[in-house]
């Protein structure tokens, strides 16, 4: 078997770990543990400390496309405003908004299970591409198979369900506000959402995760890459490798709701300074659950398999082999009940502690 090393140079950034292995019956599987530096010979990453440097380079590469992650200047007071509160027999549902950056407010639903005693795990539940926004994930509209926030609240999780920028009630011109992508704006909104969750007396600050379908699936992964407070991430129909996305046509990723720099600076997979191999690897050793339907017309399952195969050695390096899970259900771009329940069961194992009194079945 032959391997081919690739070094990508973008605006002075040396990308490493792009060795590819051509495996029978697959596309390209990247050897993420092989570094090729600008002036240094190729070498292997052999421990978690060396991986930390690699992870930093991945985050830099993502910001080349998404724009910079904000600093303290945008971490203004959350100034949470509750608009109304509604009750169900299983949880309290609060409609609220919070300030994520100066002059920018995020509409969201907060679900708090009834009878919570002590600290409970919490989740960000992120919706798909829909004008319904947060109302679908919270179970008030849209497809029953995507009422993920509602279902998690019924299992005993505190759940925050924000609107994605430009969807639902979050009508904002992100570019007029100085953002370089809606993707980074969403990441920052989500990070401030974690700030909100950590401020709640019902929430265990160390047990916070993210879950999403489609847009919410990759939105959650991007957020987990940048925010190490996220301990578990579940993505359904959320990605494929860029070379497997509609044959390498990245136009869908270059729209105003995503990353416009792709159109102007990184229009092909070969020119992209990062891929989903890198995104998932940057989350290691934290837990990731990938659900990739075999008949998903948006995200080719072959590319998902390539990504998972590439990332598994990084989890092995961290001795976290069992924290990366992937399933390939026989369905289309959907999330059937049985598959959601399997994902929730995995999440319970990652996030629960014996004796949690908030657990509900």
Taken in chain order, the helices and strands follow as: EEEEEEEHEEEEHHEHEHEHHEHEH
Helix content: 25-40%
Task: List the total number of helices.
Answer: 9
Give the beta-strand count.
16
User: What portion of the residues fall into strands of 2 or more residues?
Assistant: 15-25%
Give the neighbour order of strands across the main sheet: 8-9-10-12-11-13-14-15-16
Q: Please give the radius of gyration in angstroms.
A: 20 Å
> What gap, in angstroms, lies between the N and C termini?
49 Å
Uncertain runs are 1-26, 354-361
The overall pLDDT, averaged over residues, is 90
Largest sheet: 9 strands, mixed
SSE class: alpha/beta
Shape assignment: globular
Gist?
The chain has nine helices and 16 strands. α1 packs across α7, α4 packs across α5 and α7 packs parallel to α8.
Characterization of the model:
With 361 residues, the chain is an alpha/beta fold. 29% of the residues lie in helices and 24% in strands. It is built from 9 helices and 16 strands. The strands form 4 sheets. Strands 8-9-10-12-11-13-14-15-16 form a 9-stranded mixed sheet, sandwiched between helices. Helix 5 (215-226) links the parallel strand 13 and strand 14 (230-236).
How are the SSEs placed, and which strands pair?
Blueprint: E1 3-4, E2 9-10, E3 13-14, E4 19-22, E5 28-31, E6 34-35, E7 43-44, H1 48-66, E8 81-87, E9 91-101, E10 104-113, E11 120-126, H2 134-137, H3 148-154, E12 158-162, H4 182-198, E13 203-213, H5 215-226, E14 230-236, H6 261-264, H7 276-283, E15 287-291, H8 301-317, E16 324-327, H9 337-351
Helix pairs in contact: 1-7, 4-5, 5-7, 7-8
